[in-house]
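Retro notes (design track)

What went well: tokenization of the new backbones is finally stable.
What didn't: we kept losing track of which sequence belonged to which structure.
Fix going forward: every design gets posted as structure first, then sequence, in one message. First example under the new rule, 478 residues:
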């Protein structure tokens, strides 16, 4: 597949000369910043970066690229776990300037452009006393999160982001624009909710919004390793009497100037301090050496995970699942493995193993075949992020990371469960390319593949997770 040559770059600029789009080529002073990513190992030298401002400009760029067989990718926040927002020699469609958020108070709906971050959404929604189910790390873009599923602190009350999606405007591979909803193009709407990045560019989303009172209770706590048993004990009782207004993340993290890896907890309670402190009393009483919990505006709780959101350095991101109860012996073994790695290799303090407890009651009310999203079940997401700086360590760190993800999934996840009707156990937005489409979409894959042949027969949108890789059905470009 040809790359974007200099003459083609000039042709692209001419194509967009009467628009507000900005074409950034390698000779532009903003080029290096425009290709930077969450992990420097995902950064690639693109032929051009196009900062679009509207759906029509996205359509023009997509049509230009597909007609000339030039590879292109879409960048929202730059946090894609597969590196799918970068390309060697191709075109990056940057959505950064498409960040408008419009609230309809009468219908309690919020229209959001695909390049907006969840921080943008939280800020605007809060001025109307509203909130949507967004991402727990609000630096990420609305488009990337929503098309892949979307877990947030409000998931326990209202389900996933896609469960609250009313419509999405999508630019298809031929440059045409479709607005999909339950009533219009329902087959594409089915696919967009969980696998949308494989079908087109989401440029506008309309979500249900909900009244949200401030403040809420939340924040980080850090403990010494001897507190792990009590933290695991609390986690194992999470399902006992918990309502949808809580969330509890915990795990292991390296901290600067701390000899041993710390145990951390990130807590959320959508209600008064007295209720929150009573609910989290078994955790709060464990004498944390750092306690950052407080009452705060709802948007602030979505900033907590941003501690690990800085661009730069080499990173490996991955996800799996776990079920309760967690065995203390296993958790101690996992802690020792992670602590050993932290002490053996020069890894930054952003490295983390995290267990995310968000109530699944609302989430599992929707069947796994009701949308393309196939990760619904009586289990939770686990996420691991390894960080380092030396490129020579890439193979070793990726192998260690993969081993840890595999260990959690096989020894603590649904792989050990006999319960029927479970989901796939892998959240596609957390997965790297080690997970193939069948592992990510399970029984929904055949329908997705047929829809791909209808809406994207040349498999142009395959950078996120290729629907046809290692499967029997082939697209024209598979």
């Amino acid at each position: 597949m040809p790359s974007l040559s200099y003459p083609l770059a000039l042709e692209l600029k001419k194509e967009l000369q009467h628009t507000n789009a900005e074409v950034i080529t390698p000779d532009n002073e903003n080029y290096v910043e425009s290709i930077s990513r969450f992990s420097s190992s995902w950064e690639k030298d693109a032929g051009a970066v196009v900062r679009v401002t509207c759906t029509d400009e996205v359509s023009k760029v997509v049509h230009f690229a597909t007609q000339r067989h030039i590879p292109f990718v879409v960048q929202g926040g730059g946090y894609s776990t597969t590196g799918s927002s970068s390309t060697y020699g191709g075109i990056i469609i940057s959505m950064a300037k498409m960040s408008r958020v419009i609230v309809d108070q009468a219908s309690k709906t919020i229209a959001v452009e695909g390049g907006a971050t969840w921080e943008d959404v939280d800020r605007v929604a809060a001025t109307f006393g509203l909130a949507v189910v967004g991402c727990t790390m609000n630096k990420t873009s609305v488009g990337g999160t929503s098309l892949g599923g979307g877990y947030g602190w409000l998931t326990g009350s209202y389900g996933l982001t896609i469960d609250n999606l009313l419509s999405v405007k999508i630019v298809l591979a031929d440059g045409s624009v479709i607005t999909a909803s339950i009533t219009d193009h329902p087959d594409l709407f089915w696919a967009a909710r969980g696998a949308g990045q494989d079908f087109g560019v989401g440029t506008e989303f309309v979500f249900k919004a909900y009244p949200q009172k401030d403040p809420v209770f939340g924040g980080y706590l850090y403990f010494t390793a001897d507190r792990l048993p009590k933290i695991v004990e609390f986690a194992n009782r999470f399902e006992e009497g918990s309502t949808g207004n809580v969330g509890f993340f915990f795990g292991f993290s390296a901290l600067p100037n701390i000899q041993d890896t710390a145990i951390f907890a990130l807590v959320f309670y959508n209600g008064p301090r007295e209720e929150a402190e009573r609910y989290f009393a078994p955790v709060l009483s464990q004498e944390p050496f750092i306690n950052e919990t407080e009452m705060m505006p709802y948007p602030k709780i979505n900033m907590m995970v941003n501690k690990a959101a800085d661009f730069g350095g080499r990173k490996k991101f991955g996800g799996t699942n776990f079920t309760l109860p967690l065995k203390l012996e296993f958790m101690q073994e996992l802690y020792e493995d992670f602590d050993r790695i932290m002490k053996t290799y020069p890894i930054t303090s952003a490295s983390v193993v995290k267990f995310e407890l968000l109530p699944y009651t609302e989430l599992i009310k929707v069947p796994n075949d009701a949308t393309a999203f196939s990760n619904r079940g009586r289990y939770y997401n686990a996420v691991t992020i390894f960080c380092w700086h030396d490129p020579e360590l890439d193979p070793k760190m990726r192998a260690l990371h993969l081993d840890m993800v595999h260990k959690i999934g096989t020894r603590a996840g649904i792989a050990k469960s006999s319960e029927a009707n479970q989901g796939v156990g892998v959240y596609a937005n957390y997965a790297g390319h080690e997970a193939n489409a069948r592992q990510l979409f399970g029984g929904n894959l055949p329908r997705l593949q047929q829809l791909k042949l209808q809406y994207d027969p040349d498999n142009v949108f395959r950078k996120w997770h290729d629907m046809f890789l290692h499967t029997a059905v082939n697209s024209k470009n598979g």
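Added context from the reviewer: Confidence is low (pLDDT under 50) at residues 472-478.
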